[in-house]
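Submission checklist for the structure archive. All mandatory fields must be present; incomplete records are returned to the submitter.

[x] Identifier: LptE family protein
[x] Organism: Flagellimonas profundi
[x] Residue count: 173
[x] Sequence attached
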Amino acid sequence: MAKKHGIKIGLLGLVLFLQSCGAYNFSGADIGTAESFQVNFFQNYADQTPGSTIVPGLGRDFTLALQDMINNLTSLSLTGSNGDLVYEGEIVEYKVVPMTATADQRTAQNRLTMSVNVRFYNTTKEDADFEKRFSFFYDFDAAASLPSIQAAAHEEIFERLTQDIFNASLGNW
């Protein structure tokens, strides 16, 4: 009988704990009273930064990666307009620079850097709005061509950038 009573108390405690978590979910996101989000298309303006190049489809791919990240880590509904949370911005840098050299002064390693400028609006909590630049890189062997490493580079860079944007906008650490 005591064991059965202990299980009931334990379940009651778990229910109370989960209810006290309020608008948090298991990703640690603080969505407050927001129910929806939108991610406006990230235009690629990287060619306006010296040394940067334009990659066709990069804006679309990054926009989709950010949508997927938020969709997978929250219970928010994705919408095309009037979202409670709005993400917008532009890709402002996409360039490869040499990082290390060999003894005979040849490039041994290159670094692909991508930067995005993000504006975040939270219609349910306006003091959470921000505009911020996020940047990440991918190092690769100089003997490799950019097209040969691009898929792996984009996967790693997008993962880090979207996680950083998510943490800045919804992380309450």
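[x] Structure attached
Curator remark: Confidence is low (pLDDT under 50) at residues 10-26. DSSP finds three helices and six strands in the chain.
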